[in-house]
Amino acid sequence: MTVTEFDMVRLGDGCGINRNTCLEYYLFRDRIMSIGPTDVGAFSRVGPTSVVLLDTPMSDAPVIAM
Questions:
Q1: Given Cys at both, which of 4, 32, 41, 53 links 12, Cβ 3.0 to 4.6 Å?
Q2: On the CB side of 14, how many CA atoms lie within 13 Å of its CA?
Q3: Please, what is the Cα angle at 55 between 66 and 41, to 5 degrees?
Q4: Pairing mode, if any, of strands 26-29 and 32-35?
């Protein structure tokens, strides 16, 4: 995982981000670039090869698994 825009991603305390996870903070839709925050709450778990899209906040302690 690579985060290049640190101000667009918030990782809560104790969250777990697994290998090959994609935290999207920009997306192209119909040739228009959308930019928005990615918010992973405290003690959340994002499983391997999972994707969290922009403007989709994860509350505290959910689990996304593949």
A1: 41
A2: 8
A3: 60
A4: antiparallel
Is residue 63 within 8 A of residue 50, CB to CB? The reply is: no
Residue 27: beta bridge partners?
A: 34
Looking at residue 66, its pLDDT comes to: 61
What pLDDT shows up at residue 13? 93
Give, in degrees to the nearest 5, the angle at Cα 56 between 58 and 46.
45
Q: Strands 26-29 and 16-17: what pairing?
A: unpaired
The token duo for 6 is 């640190």
Dist. CA 49–CA 19, nearest whole Å: 7
CA 42 to chain centre: 13
